[in-house]
Amino acid sequence: MGQFSNLEINFYCKIPNKKYLFKKNQKKLYQLLKEVTKELNLKDKFVVSLNLLESEEIKDLNKKYRNLNKTTDVLSFPQNESFDNIYDLGDIFINGELLLEQAKSINSDQDTEFCFLFMHGLLHLIGYDHLNIEDEKKMINRQKELFKKLKIRND
């Protein structure tokens, strides 16, 4: 991974039939991480944890940390700490049980949805949000730029 030697994604999957998603999309995930971390202007090595969980586990995290008793597609928990030139961005939790369903609902595929949710989570880790219309527009525009630049999806 020469061009990605200063990047690390720690992948954990609780859904056995979805483990292939990381390996299949690894290059795109690292490209997304590389592009997003450029915004931080740091020379550190970047680390992020990517977790693919079942709906019930996502629901539990959402209830515990956001006081929302429902499942969701992705959760992000920023760490944003540097230690020995390693910058820990934080944790991303993707609902692996919703990937295919959500992809079909927008005429997409599971791989693209997986990359999209990873990117969405990454942007949250570095400070993007969608709590108001202005911030939501910034985040959506950045998502579109990244997907177009990396040729992941055209829209």
Give the strand content.
15-25%
Number of strands: 4
- Average pLDDT reading: 91
Stretches where pLDDT falls below 50 for ≥5 residues?
none
Distance between the termini: 28 Å
Gyration radius, rounded: 15 Å
User: CATH superfamily assignment?
Assistant: Metalloproteases ("zincins"), catalytic domain
Output the CATH topology. Answer: Collagenase (Catalytic Domain)
Number of domains: 1
Primary descriptors:
155 residues; alpha/beta; Collagenase (Catalytic Domain); 4-stranded mixed sheet; 46% helix
Q: Would you give an account of this structure?
A:
The chain is α/β, with parallel strands linked by helices and 155 residues long. It has a single domain, classed as Collagenase (Catalytic Domain). It has 5 helices and 4 strands, in the order E-H-E-H-E-E-H-H-H. The longest helix has 19 residues.
How are the elements arranged and paired?
Layout: E1 7-13, H1 20-38, E2 45-53, H2 55-66, E3 74-83, E4 86-95, H3 99-105, H4 110-125, H5 133-149
Parallel strand pairs: 1-2, 2-4
Antiparallel strand pairs: 3-4
